[in-house]
Structures are given as structure tokens and as C-alpha cells.
Amino acid sequence: MANKVKIGIIGLGFMGTTHFRIYQKNEKANIIAVSDIDQKKLSGDWSSVSGNIGNGKNTALTDMSGIITYTDGLELIRDSNIDVVDICVPTFLHKQFITAALESGKHVICEKPLARTSKEAEEIIRIAEKYDKFLMIGMCIRFWPEYQYAYKVVKSGALGKVVSATFKRVSPNISGNAWNNWFMNSENSGGALLDLHIHDVDFVRYLFGNPKSVTAFGLRGFRTDAGLDHVVAQYEYGNGSLIVLEGGWAPSKGTPFEMSFQIICEKGTIRLSESGFKVIYENGKIEEPKVASANAPTGWHVELEYFLECIQHNIKPDAFYTLDELVDSIKLIEAEEKSIELKKTVEIRYKNPKPKTRKIINYFKAINYWVLGGFDGKKSAFEAIDDAKEMEMDGIELTFGDCLKEDITEDECKKIAKYASDNGIGLKTLATGYYWGCSLGSDDEIERKKAIMFTQKYIEVAHWLGVKKILVVPGAVDVAWDENRPVIGYKTVWENATNSLMEILPKAKRWGVEICLENVWNKFLLSPIEMKIFLDQFGSDIIGSYFDVGNVMLTGYPEHWIEILGENIKAIHVKNFEREDCAGVLHGFGDNLTKGDVNFDRVKDALSKIDYHGPITAEMIPFSRLPDLSLPDMELARQTAVKMKEIFQ
Fold first, then answer.
1. Which of 281, 299, 315, 336 is most open to solvent, judged by the fewest CB atoms within 10 Å of its CB?
2. CATH, domain 5-139, list 3.40.190.170, 2.60.40.420, 3.30.565.10, 3.40.50.720
3. CA atoms of 552 and 88, how far apart (whole Å)
4. pLDDT digit string (tens) for 472-530?
């Protein structure tokens, strides 16, 4: 297990104490120090702390033994024993403490919002860019289980087009709940819009993108000195959908806190309310998904777990958002304020993207390990890298389970990655033949779990190597060349493969490794439309297609697949295939990349239309030589390298 991340928390208000409790129960975290100006809080007396949701019990003293305490947050930042500074101070102090922590060489997680204004937020980003430490902002709703589930369902298109969506976040009056009553000072807090309503503003942007205009109505100066205490806003996207957000802290103390949404789609409604989390279909069917786990019941738990993993594995924490996105969310808050002030709709002008110009594509050309080293993995990765360099390829696709043993270590992977880099050979993808004997879609639960564990190690190895894409076979109805493998129902394979991948995807996302599903002779996902539907159900960019040009020739044309799959394509395998009287067997895969029925000019034209710039790897396994197929074949490898450069120059 990786070393624990050493944490220092500045501010023991509602969020600081919430983070404290979560870190205490997380085996990845070690709280080294805390800071607050209130000595009572430093002694463990948090009875004065209150919040609006998920409150811990603050009546009992918190055990602070072994934790260093500071009354000055800047002193905590200077503590050399701390890896991460968790900043939970008033919004107007964010820039000061973020800057100091980054300058001191600390990673930073800071409570939302990023800053008091969009201008100040942009200044913080420019400061953060100077340092090699991570900065993450606590936009917990993007991580909240019910919201994440809704995001995936909407993005998958499973319920059709969104016709209306309402998001509501209303707190009882919080006056007197915090140090110096700073929430009620609108200059310091930004009022309910920036402190509370921003959660839904940011999530709506996350879900639907940037709106064209905003129309807002607000209640000013009812609780705060002069700030906006309640708002109702409509976002216009120009597509006929009705998107409404409501938020504030105007109700009387004692009024229940409300965090809810209702997303109405063509085929059903997703609803979070006091009555629970439900998906209500047009036919009357109601599902109540159980999305939260015992270990991670809230978005706070999920975001902190994610950040800790990023620190442990040196992964930039931008899988859920970039800092620039959060600036745009603050700009939307400012647009709402402007709409309320001017009493009219405010159009939002975003920077025009640079016009795209058609360029000559310099494809990244790689060769798969098997033609160089065979299936037994006797040739080392270093020797195979030498071969790829000698053939003047851009990269090599190493294989996990033979060339790279299943027990390979992080240090060994880093040596391989350095050797490849030093020799100018890129490592963009990994492949494996493991899934033919152990399937993610198996109806044998033990086998399926074994395949999941293999894939999780596969992801780790890819990350250690700096590889961003791995080839995965999601399942097989049968394996035609292995009579010992069972025939499994198509529906069973679909369901089991889906469940397996859902279990794998969180780790892939955390580690920044894309799961690329290969179209292959497995009698599963037999058309591009099936493949696209299967991929889209996950609602995630971390999963896509490893499109094999030759594998589709028996029943279709690669250019048609490319057109339909589009941006789902993450990586490409090339080989050729010769049809025989509208039929074909494994012998159709020959030993000449340019001999066969693949029209590479049409393939390249289709790739150009979808603006594909990913890796293209030759996977040459000449089944036409059966029963005398033998690899490695260095002459075949050299011929293939020459033809790759001819085709994709």
C-alpha cells in the first residue's frame, strides 16, 4: 500500500470538521495538524459548529491527541511534515492561503468556490501554473452519488432527450453560524449565490454545457447586509429545453434543508427529493437505485478519496473538472447577478474557439509486440523496443500477460518506460490475449471476478508505464477456436460485461487509463450501432472503442464503423483480410498488410472526417499460415513496418 498522505487542515468550521471526520476514517490519510483561531475548537470542542447537511455530532469532545495545533494557518503551511493543505476558510481568504500553500510546496484542496470573483479565480490559476503541485477545489456535487448517477444516465441517452430540469438548493437562515458572521457580509461571501447556489450552477454546466443566456430573479438584503439571499434562474440553451435553478438561505431557522433535482426526459424522469432517489419511467416503472456506499455516502467522501488517490499515484486531479471550468461557473453566477440587477436576460459571450483547419495528419504508427516476440513473452520489452526503433516506428504496443508478466512491479515498468523514452519509442497502448480464457462477460462468477482483478492490475501497469489506452475484450458468446470454452447467451454476456466494466471504470478514471473495447470475432457487438449503444450506456469518456479495421471485413466495412463510432474510437488496430465468396475463416488474415479487401484509402478518408489523431498499430497474426503459424517473425515485422509507413505517411 502507498504511504499515507499527511494532511493539514486550516479552519475547523462546518467543512473543516466534516473533512476531519472523513480523513479520520480513510486509511489513505493521516491528519498531522489543524489550525483555527478558536482555541476551543483546537481542544476538540466543536459544539459551536453547525451546518446545513450531514452534520456530525458535535456534543462530544473530539480526540485531538497526536495532532499538532496552530492558531495561525500560515504556520501550519510552513510545517515540513505536511503533504496536503486542506483549506476551509472564508471565501475572501482563499487566494491568500492557496498561494502560500503552493509556494511552500504543498498540494492543496480548497473548499468551494475557487475565489470571490472570476477575476480573482483566474489570478489563482495563473499562480497555480507556476508550481508542480496539485490544486483541487471542493465541488462536491460533481462527486455526489445521486448526481453522478444522473449525469451518467443523461449522458448515455438511455432516457432520451432532456426536456426540462429543475435544481433546488435551499437552506434555512445561517446567520450567526460562522466566525464573525462572515456569510452575512456579502462582500466577503458573495451571498447565497456564490456560497450555496454555485453547486447547482456548476452541475448544470457539467451536465448541459454553457448556456447561451441567463434570466434571473432575486431577493436581496433579506438575510445578508446587501447580498442576494434567494434566486430563481432560467438557463437558455436554444434547444427547447427548460432548465431552472433555485437556491438561497432565506427561510427561517429550523426549516429543513432542501437539496433536490428533477430531470424530465422523453422516456422517464430522474428525481432526487425528500422521498428518495428514483428513476420513474414513462410506462410507470419505478427504480430506486442504491448509488451510495457505506464507505462513501456523500460527495465529500468521494472527492476526498479521489484526491488522496491522485496524490498517492501522482495523477493530476482533473478527471471531473478543470480549474478553468470553475471560472466559467463563477462567471455564470456573475451573469445571474447582472440579470437581477438589470432586470433582463443576459447573454453570455464565450471566447470563440480557433477555427479548425484541415491539416495533414502525421499518424502515430506502432507495431504490436506479438509479431516481434511471439506469444510466450520470451523476448524482453527492452529488446522489442530496440526492434521498433530499428524499424523506425513511432511506437510499440507491448502486451500484458506475456511480454509484461502479471507480477511486474512499478519499478520495472518505470525502467521500461524510461528506456522507450530514451530511444524515442512511444508507448501509447497495451494489448492482451488474456480475455479469451477468462472473460469479463462470463456466466461463471469466479471467472468474471478473476477477469476484473486482472483488468485492475492491467490498469495499474498501464499507468506505471505512462500508457493511456488498454485493449479490452468485453466478453464472448463463444471462442470459435477453443472448443473448451462454453457458449454463453448474448444477453448474459451484455449484462455481465456491463457490470464488470462498471466496477472497473472508477479505477480507470482515477488512474487516467482509457478502457478501449475491441471489435473481434466473439459473436458479440456485431455491428457499429451495437458497439455504440454498448459504449454510450456508461456515459463516460474513459471508455471507448479499440477499432480493428480487419476484424470487421467478414460482415461489413471499416469506413462505415468509423463513421458511426466517431469520437468513441480511442485507438486503431490494422491488419488485412481476404473474403472468400462472401464467407471467410481465420485464414483470411494474411501476412501482407496491403493484400486483402480493406480499402485503406477509404479508411483514411473516414478517419480524416472524424478528425482522428490517435495511435494506429499493426497487429499482424498471419492465421493464413495455419496450421504452421509461428511467431515471432522478424521479416514479417520489417515488411509490415515498411507498409505502415507507405499507407499512413
1. 281
2. 3.40.50.720
3. 55
4. 999 999 998 888 999 999 999 999 999 999 999 999 999 999 999 999 989 999 999 99
| Of 129, 148, 37, residue with least CA distance to 88 | 37
- All residue ranges of the chain with pLDDT < 70 are 1-2, 52-59, 350-361, 580-591, 649
Which region holds residue 97: left if phi is over 0, alpha if psi is between -120 and 50, else beta?
alpha
Residue 350: predicted pLDDT:
58
Q: What is the pTM of this model?
A: 0.61
pLDDT value for 600 = 87
Q: Regarding the domain delimited by 142-297+323-347, which CATH topology (the fold level of the hierarchy) does it fall under?
A: Dihydrodipicolinate Reductase; domain 2 (3.30.360)
Contact assessment for residue 96 and residue 77, using Cβ atoms and an 8 Å cutoff? no
Q: What angle do CA 624, 561, 647 make, to 5 degrees?
A: 60
Please give the full DSSP string across 177-214, using - where no structure is assigned.
SSGGGGGG-HHHH-HHIIIIIHHHHHHHHHHH---SEE
Question: According to the model, what pLDDT value does residue 588 have?
Answer: 64
The reported pLDDT for the residue numbered 358 is 37
CA 95 to chain centre: 27
For the domain made up of 364-647, give the CATH fold.
TIM Barrel (3.20.20)
Cβ proximity of 517 and 545 under 8 Å: yes
CA atoms within 13 A of residue 160's CA, in its CB half-sphere: 11
Q: Which residues of the chain does CATH 3.20.20.150 include?
A: 364-647
Cα distances (angstroms) measured from residue 50 to each of 138, 173, 178: 19, 12, 8
Task: Mark residue 409 as left, alpha or beta (left: phi above 0; alpha: psi -120 to 50; beta: remaining).
Answer: beta
CA–CA gap between residue 173 and residue 224 (Å, rounded): 10
For 375, residues 6+ apart whose C-beta sits below 8 A from its C-beta are 402, 433, 631
The answer to whether the beta carbons of residues 211 and 202 sit under 8 Å apart is no
